[in-house]
Amino acid sequence: MISSRSLFSLFLPLSDIPPKMPLKKSQLYSSLWASCDQLRGGMDASQYKDYVLVMLFIKYISDKFAGVPYAPITVPVGASFKDMVALKGKPTIGDDINKKILGPIGTANKISDFPDFNDVNKLGSGADMVSRLSNLIAIFEKNELDFSQNRAEGDDILGDAYEYLMRHFATESGKSKGQFYTPAEVSRVIAKIIGIDTTRVTAETSAYDPAGGSGSLLLKVADQAERSISLYLQEMDVATASLARMNMILHNNPTAVIKQGNTLANPLFLDGNNTLKTFDYVVANPPFSYKSWSNGVDPVHDIHRRFQDFGVPPAKNGDYAFLLHIIRSLKSKGKGACILPHGVLFRGNSEAEIRKSIIQKGYIKGIIGLPPNLFYGTGIPACIIVLDKENAPNRDGLFMIDASKGFLKDGNKNRLREQDIHKIVDVFNKQIELPKFSRLVPLSEISDTKNDYNLNIPRYIDSQEPEDIQDIEAHLLGGIPNADIDALSEYWDVYPSMRNGLFAMEGRFVNRPRKGYSILNIPKEEIKKTIFSHPEFTAFSLEMDSVFNNWKTRNVKLLKEITSGVKPKKIIQTISEDILETYTGRKLLNKYDLYQHLMNYWNEVMQDDIYIISADGWKAELIALKQTKKETTWGCDLIPKSQVINRFFKTEKDAIEKLEAEKESISAQITELEEEHGGEEGLFSVLDKVNKANIQKRLKEIKGDKEAKEECTVLNAYIGFSEKESSLNTRIKELSVDLEQRVIARYKTLTTDEIKTLVVDDKWMATIESLVRTEMERISQRLAQRIKELAERYETPLSVQTKELADLEAKVAAHLQKMGFTWN
User: Fold this and answer.
1) Residue 325 · residue 346 · CB < 8 Å
2) At what angle do helices 127-139 and 45-65 cross, to 10 degrees?
């Protein structure tokens, strides 16, 4: 990530700016986030987000639609980003942005609530406001924010950047102001489990969010559809509804219908006969336990009949009010999902009756329990209620998932990892029952006397990890319990004879076997070595190498066929699904762990690389990273110099490394001399500083002194080492400079095939293969560690400890007696 200060290279003279760098997604993100630096201080994130997002919106629609006939977005003449640039430095810049830019755009596109760019309380007054807004505009003039030539637009690079900003704003906004954003990871889960990706959709297929916020959840649903669908959103907050409108445009959904108002008191999507409009898909993340839900609502005489067949929610808790609104808004074959706090699963009184009615009607398809602290504004755990009217009449069970354990700690929040998302989606959509994770719970069990329609997930799924129980008999008499060894059965299934090599079953204890216990056959220090050198371990490793190589062969071909304009998201979708398929059913290895390794590397490196290739093709362009009067430091984003050296200049590299190793040896000998003859009485004590010049001066002083023979020998040795070190430094520098020049020259002659080999084989696949091997090693290390833990736990029986204690007590007593003390 680049620092915000580096963005101000914008204001350097043109001659001081390095050549234009290719588009990198991470740089786009950081450039946008750095724009916030211009606004911090005068307002909090929940406010300055509006200014930054409006700037992004104006820049995007100007680049894409200004002057374009019949464009879905109108950019009035005189109201484009170029016109905004012309306002930089003007004393009236704030007022001019409001009246000349935002006013016409808002009127033309029915966006009613832009932030005030002339607000002195937030933006400062006079020269302070002029400077702040001028610098903010200048940041959006950057090349990487030029969307007019974005070849990867179908990959939604801008939408992802918007998502990035929203997440950061929500993080910074504080505990009570993150309601405008549903974490993207949760939105993706919902979008993938409601079935829109497996259904044939048309332009008339509709999706609705009654508590839409900025629209992020609804957009994730739209992303999963095979083609464009009709989007509808209602949001109570005026500013957030305006944000949703811009979000839809930035995500290429300009026809989405956005309405502002209180959904429960005044639902604005109605059919001609004043009844609620119904939709194919409904999703929502309403405010949790909203206390004022009933303001303006008459639930008993609700003309929309939302509560008629279920009951009235508590006056101070709106969770079920939103859920019932969603159910009423679904078509007869409609499907949906709603994020609600866990309390809706088990709270009593009127909510218990509503829950019972919804279950009896078969509307709930499943429940997914999420980890705590995922959402901005609350740390309480939540769940996803999955709804399905189409199959409600035949429903005889609810599919439950306890996903509360799978997450990554990210600052002060938790976040679902890629592997958590994929596992939840796979398990739910395929209705896979996994111990401690998922279960299809019969309605007969939910409705029985014991449970009485209580849906609290721990009633049906015990996700607690088993306790590591200590064996008292083993502590008393020694030996490792066979039950603990049996618990490692996943390893013995793969390494069947290894167990007998590691343990003596029904082991020997003072020449007497004890049933149910074993002893370690080898010293505990050799456990790891024994495992890693075992023939079955070697055979399994070779088998896994073959599995990986098959995946590698397929995907190397795919990756080398990438061309300009490729959509990076399609690439990672293909190769990541392939790695999951490849490792499905493989013993020991968890396919989701391997998937996570791949996705991490994608996010850190591959994504930026493929965006570069998508923009510029297979080019290895050198970029000036640092320039001084004496030299220029060159680099290449796509192919690091180390890879060119490793493939084409290994002999030269080895020669330099050999000299460097020799130099390190000489340096070590110099250090040894300094340590041996330093100190107050050492031969070097007469020197102010130990260096070549002072030593040569000292040699002249003691020349001819027969008593200084030893000192001369040491000093001459130091001189010899120093001269050798200097000579090596010179030679290393010469060879390094020569290698650098040859490498730079080689970049200029790289063929397309050579670039593909360097990027796909040497960079991407070599790294992914290393990650897979690391996972294999981690699994085996876990086995070694567990066996060592068991061996150490029971290696000293109580009888031995008692004897050792008695021996020590006897020694202490004997010493005390010699000292004249009596031991009682």
Assistant:
1) no
2) 50
- The amino acid at 426: D
Cα distance between residue 91 and residue 127, in whole Å: 7
Domain boundary at 129, 152, 175, which? 152
Higher pLDDT, 780 or 378: 780
Query: To which H or E segment does residue 277 belong?
Result: none
Split into its structural domains, the chain has a count of: 2
Q: pLDDT by residue (tens digit) across 753-805?
A: 999 999 999 999 999 999 999 999 999 899 999 999 999 999 888 878 788 88
Q: What type of residue sits at position 23?
A: L
Kindly report the CATH number assigned to the domain that includes residue 143: 1.20.1260
DSSP for 703-762, written as a single string? TT-GGGHHHHHHHHHHHHHHHHHHHHHHHHHHHHHHHHHHHHHHHHH--HHHHHIIIIII
Is position 130 within any domain?
yes
β-pairing verdict for 330-341 and 382-388:
antiparallel
Phi-psi region of 88 (alpha: psi -120 to 50; beta: other; left: phi over 0): beta
Locate 772 and state its tokens: 């897979």
Task: Give per-residue pLDDT as tens, 5-31.
Answer: 222 222 222 233 333 444 466 667 776
Q: At which of 749, 766, 782 does a domain end?
A: 749
Which range marks the domain in which residue 649 is found? Answer: 640-749
Calculate helix-pair angle for 591-601, 568-582, nearest 10 degrees: 160
Write out the two tokens for 710. Answer: 């030893």
- Token representation of residue 86: 């012309």
So what's the pLDDT on residue 354?
97
What are the beta bridge partners of residue 410?
Answer: 413
User: From residue 29, how far is each of 142, 392, 697, 727 by CA, in Å?
Assistant: 12, 44, 60, 47
Whether residue 674 contacts residue 687, with contact meaning beta carbons closer than 8 Å, is answered with no
Closest CA to 58 of 136, 122, 120, 135: 136
Q: What angle do CA 815, 820, 824 make, to 5 degrees?
A: 75
pLDDT > 80? residue 167: no
**810 within a domain of the structure (yes/no):** no
For residue 529, tell me if it sits in a domain.
Answer: no
SS3 of the chain: helix, strand, coil, percent, to 5: 55, 10, 35
Helix 157-172 and helix 25-35, axial crossing angle in degrees, nearest 10: 40
C-alpha distances in Å from residue 640, one per residue of 76, 81, 108: 46, 37, 48
pTM score, two decimals?
A: 0.84
Q: Is residue 754 part of a domain?
A: no
306 pLDDT higher than 50: yes
Which tokens sit at 498? 């290894």
Name the nearest CA neighbour of 415 among 250, 170, 609, 211. Answer: 170
Provide CB contacts within 8 A for 591, sequence distance 6+: 579, 580, 582, 583, 584
